[in-house]
Hints:
By secondary structure, this protein is an alpha+beta fold. It has three domains: 4-127, no CATH class; 204-267, SH3 Domains (SH3 type barrels); 307-417, Arc Repressor Mutant, subunit A (Orthogonal Bundle). The chain is 51% helix and 22% strand. It is built from 13 helices and 18 strands. The protein has helices spanning 4-22, 28-51, 55-76, 81-92, 94-127, 192-202, 274-306, 309-321, 326-341, 349-353, 361-364, 366-373, 378-388, and strands spanning 132-135, 140-144, 153-158, 162-168, 172-177, 180-185, 189-191, 204-209, 213-217, 226-231, 235-242, 245-250, 253-258, 262-267, 272-273, 400-402, 410-412, 415-417. Strands 6-5-4-1-7 form a five-stranded antiparallel beta sheet, covered by helices on one side. Strands 13-12-11-8-14 form a five-stranded antiparallel beta sheet, with no helix packed on it. The chain has a three-stranded antiparallel beta sheet with strand order 2-3-15. A hairpin with a 2-residue loop joins strand 17 (410-412) and strand 18 (415-417). It is elongated.
Amino acid sequence: MKTNCKKWKYLLCLTAVTTAFASIPFSAQAADMHARLMDNMDKKQETTSDKMNSADNKNMAAVTAGAANVLDFQIVSMDFSSVDAEKSVIAKDGASEMKSTQTYASSKSEALATFAKAMMVLQPELESQSTLVMAKVNEYVNIRKDADQDSEKVGILYKDCGGDVLEKNDEWTKIKSGDVTGWIKNQYLYFGSEAEELAKDVGVLTAYSNTETLRVRKEPSLDAGIVGLLANGQAVEAISEEGDWVKVSYEGETGFVSAEYVRVEFGIDTAESMEAVRAREEAERARAAAEAESRRVQQKEAVLASATELEILAALIQCEAGGEPYEGQVAVGAVVMNRVRCGGYPNNITDVIYMSGQFVPASGGRMESLILNKTTKASCIQAAQEAINGVCNVGDALHFRRNNGTRQGLVIGNHVFW
């Protein structure tokens, strides 16, 4: 895309050349020479234009032709009073006429040469006007709100993703990628031809159906068999454009659709905003939690269907006090049995342990794994059996926690009971 800045460069260049022409002496034969030169220029431009195939060359031809017309207009519109005066001089002195003509032709040639050099300088700019940028990273680069390393992150540009340049300085470039606008350090971006080459490799050509029911055919022919159908607005990957047909990939098969009824667009992946990143991460956390809860519920149901209360209590003791001395393991079992005998809790071991918000291991799935895999320690099974049989070394205690010195109670091992 052309920028306003570059358009002004072209205008200034043309203005300079036009000014040079306006200062050239004019004579009757010089005018004839001018006409012949302009005629030759037009013919050469017509020949050159016929050979130009790319869009950039066509633009260059248009600029050149426009410049010639401007120059022609400037010279013809000069004050012809000076022409009348020069005619009288020429009538008196043929040598002066020839000299004037030669001077004009020489000046005109120099001006044309200057113009050609100027266009050669501008040609590379015409050929490198792409605003495309691509990420130059192995994983991703942060997009900042301002051109500052400590500025707020507004998005992430991943590998093989790109966008358009909005502004650029020596160190940073402001880009727009998808719905994200912000700054990235130049060292993390590909520009110009490098960006375009990468985009060709990673971009996707997509065909969008713009008719109610579009038939995807096996061959580029209206008589060919049908692979499938596309609804209005439905998209498929386009492989290539082949005249009146577009070759597409339809559900793993190669097919063809009429080019008349699709819109083909080339696209690359774009940046992800921080809002989208946070929403995605939150959704992933919620999905992981839901999956974990589902597994836990399944394990719990399996335990309740097959395990005894002894196995359940022993598993809890191992999760809460597996590394404690045997006395501490018995103490945990005794707390559970105190609750079973207390009116404020359920009257059985299983319901006490699985009561909401009471024992963390009962909601984390660890207990169920021990029970189902038969990996509970023998000491924990023995402690559970003693507690069920009535052994109690914590009095009427209904609670315990890791001892941090702030809770008053009976300390056994690393736990305090109250």
